[in-house]
Amino acid sequence: MSGHNPVQSAPLKNPFYISTAIHYANDLPHIGHIYENVVADVIARHRRRMGDDVFFLTGTDEHGQKIERSAEKAGVTPIELADRVVEYHHQLWKSLEITHDDFIRTTEDRHRVGVNEIVARIRANNPDDIYSGEHTGWYCQNEEAFFPESQVVDGRCENGHPVEKTTERNYFFRLSKYAEPLLEHYRRNPRFVQPATRMNEVTSFIESGLRDLSISRTAVNWGIPFPGDPSHIVYVWLDALTNYISALGFGSAEQDRFHKFWPASIHLIGKDIVRFHAVYWPAFLLSAGLPLPGTILCHGWWMRDNLKMSKSVGNVVRPDEILERFGADALRYYLLREMVFGQDSNYSDEAFLQHFNSGLANDLGNTLSRAIKMSDTYFEGKTPPIRCMVNDLRDACERFVSDYLKEMELFAFQRALDAVWKLLDAINAYIVTREPWRRFKQDGADDALARIIWDILEALRIVWVMMAPFMPGSSAEALRRLGAPQSIDEKAFRWGQLPTRSPVIATDPIFPRIDIAAYLQSDPKLKGAPLNEEKKDAESAATSGPPLETTQAISPDANRIKIDQFFEIDLRVAEVLAAKKVEKSKKLLELRLSLGDSERTVVAGIASKYQPEELVGRKVVIVANLQPAKLMGVESNGMVLAASIDGEPSLLAVDQSVPAGTKVK
Q1: Which pTM does this prediction carry?
Q2: For residue range 332-363, what is the model confidence (pLDDT) as tens digits?
Q3: Structural domain span for residue 286
Q4: How many domains does the chain have?
Q5: Which of 152, 523, 595, 664 has its CA 20 to 30 A from that of 531?
Q6: Does 435 map to a domain?
Q7: Are 114 and 105 in contact (CB under 8 A)?
Q8: Three-state secondary-structure class, residue 219
Q9: How far is CA 299 from its chain centroid?
Q10: CATH number of the CATH domain containing 392
């Protein structure tokens, strides 16, 4: 491996602390909450395999007026409401394979100890920072925050939620004192808040003038009594934010974890609460004489119909049906593939299903099945007996692994996945160029073929190593099928780890394709059940008469046509995404084709000449505007052009550089 190691070793067991924002315990999590925990889990899994000692915290915020009123409306006590929601959190995070090390509830005794301790530290270090005074302001129950008059329009806060005018005598924190210290910290640490747009936002907020902050309430009963004055309740944001250190044992007799992991490496939050985390929280810490966290990492909102998902709007997407029908990994993949981190993104069922079919079933799944099938057929169900350490695929792996690791460090998850897909493209191009099926026919399972197949399998092993933080269950299964080690550390990125003569498992596709139209048109109550394709085919066969076979090749003695008739024919270049034999037919192959901006199924009578695995990735020419026809129960939407030589089809050759969808004239 000399000169061929793109992986830079991280310091062994370097402490790395990542936390999500704790979620209100008055409602069940939706896609937006799930995204945050999945992102945190991807980061945590990646850092663990790179050698860091990771502590990953999540939890629930269970105090405040919002919880109090929601519980009253539901006819239960606040703790009963919180218990219900927390149980759902635990079940959901388990289903999504979230690997958090701790789950903090702000109703726990250890949290109360931490809150009391931070107030005591502030009073000890800066006695004037907490004082009593009267406060009148616009309070938003939904945001658990006061808003200035300038941010209230028509009785609503800047985020559109109703506000109410309240006057209370509260304890205040001298936030105004920390404007310059915070700005100085931002200047010294320009990546303290990411992305840069959020840093600009909090900088502008401070520069516009900080007002002292109310840190207690008397109109709320549900919360932690304010230290020294139990007639007040600790303001929910001072309470909630302290979870990041109370979970580490701050203020208790056992603070080893606090000393090891604080300051946090990353607080992962939604962009709507950046002010609390990047202004209030560091000000509290500065006042208490405690170190500030490393990075406040802000993600965007998941939208539906261009509106932020929220219970009040009624556009939330619950995960239960998606998880039941498609599994955790498909949802995890979609969330990280669809959203550019830090920006907003619209959720749609159609986009989810298209990502499933295109990215998972076609690209990842089909390439895996194709490679394993070849190794199973050519080398008696095992990986080849010979490794190959110098080849084009190794060079591609090292290049794209290097890109992937850089993007993971920048939290650019979509670009990291792009690097994986570039490697997949290189693997498929390697297969098309080397034509292992042709070599096997000519020379059998010789050493040259062994090296080619081993290269393909080894590159796929690295693909699935890169996918492991995103899709942990599927990655483990793919590595098992490849006969590869399932334990993953930083060495797993290096070329040469796939064993020789290790059993491979050629079985059903890891991601079966979904009939999108049938799924979207089905009764929502039935969406969780697998689609009954066999029944549909049987009904179609019963109404369409006996099946026909055809080579779909153009007859050489066809009648002459006029030029304008020819121009009515829409000839297009198409790329074969997947291919399989049509049941009960010796001639027909079912091809899944890409025309660049769309996909379609075409049935072609070329099985006597071509094996399904040798067609994947190949460019062909099709008649794209042919009326659909049903062949052996499969609807064909087009015709693949082929010459006929003594009854044997020969596909028209197209340069691989020609984009799919290009018109043929």
Answers
A1: 0.77
A2: 999 999 999 999 998 888 889 999 999 999 99
A3: 15-318
A4: 3
A5: 595
A6: yes
A7: no
A8: coil
A9: 13
A10: 1.10.730.10
